[in-house]
Specification:
Layout: E1 8-13, H1 19-30, E2 34-35, H2 37-47, H3 51-57, H4 63-72, H5 81-97, E3 103-105, H6 109-115, E4 120-126, H7 129-139, H8 147-166, E5 178-181, H9 182-185, H10 187-198
Parallel strand pairs: 1-3, 1-4, 2-3, 4-5
Helix pairs in contact: 1-10, 2-3, 2-5
Length: 200
């Protein structure tokens, strides 16, 4: 793969497996942008929901929420906030992919692009729970005593969201070009490996 033919890169990940760290490393090495906060802002503009709503519901759904969403969506005039945000995110993903190569983290981007016929290089990152617990504490996003339960809950709501909007199981190796254990390899080595594969 030549420097001039870099694809859109998607990164799916378990919580605490270093998705943002790898995305930042690829951005620096490949010279292409990755979208995180700016993605949330673009989705908020397109959907009419607040950035806080997009951040909260843009990649997370409980099992109860999935059932309620399904029941309420049977009403002709009803559109859930989750559905509205997903449709906006989908359009933002397609708009970004239509421009220059970029890196998209999460949000079902690998399946959305595949369904639209847009070539992408799809990555899944995972790590042992103990490594992810350390990472979660470093991120400082949870101030609860049982970090293991927090991580499991984050994984579960992401997986439920992914299943709801793609019909696929998150982490199924068949949906990715490569799956990497960041706990065993380390995020820096993962970036080096990915850069060597992508050809720069």
């Amino acid at each position: 793969m030549s420097e001039n033919s870099l694809p859109v890169i998607t990164i799916s990940r378990e919580y605490g497996a270093g998705g943002r760290t790898v995305a930042r490393g690829l951005t620096e090495a490949l010279g292409i942008p990755y979208y995180d906060n700016e993605f949330i802002e673009k989705t908020a503009e397109k959907s009419g929901y607040s950035a806080e709503d997009v951040e909260r519901e843009g990649e997370s759904m409980t099992h109860a929420g999935r059932i309620m969403n399904s029941i309420l969506n049977s009403a002709v005039s009803y559109t859930s906030s989750s559905d509205g945000i997903f449709r906006a995110q989908k359009q933002v993903i397609l708009d970004l992919a239509a421009g220059e190569p970029c890196i998209l983290v999460g949000r079902c981007s690998n399946i959305i692009l595949r369904a639209a016929g847009v070539p992408s290089f799809d990555i899944f990152l995972y790590a042992p729970m103990e490594k992810r617990i350390v990472r979660a504490r470093e991120l400082g996003e949870c101030n609860i005593a049982d970090v293991r339960k927090y991580i499991s809950r984050r994984d579960d709501t992401r997986a439920t969201y992914y299943k709801t909007y793609t019909g696929h199981d998150m982490g199924d190796y068949r949906d990715y070009n490569i799956c990497l254990d960041t706990g065993a390899i380390g995020t820096e080595k993962c970036v080096e490996l990915l850069v060597s594969i992508l050809g720069k």
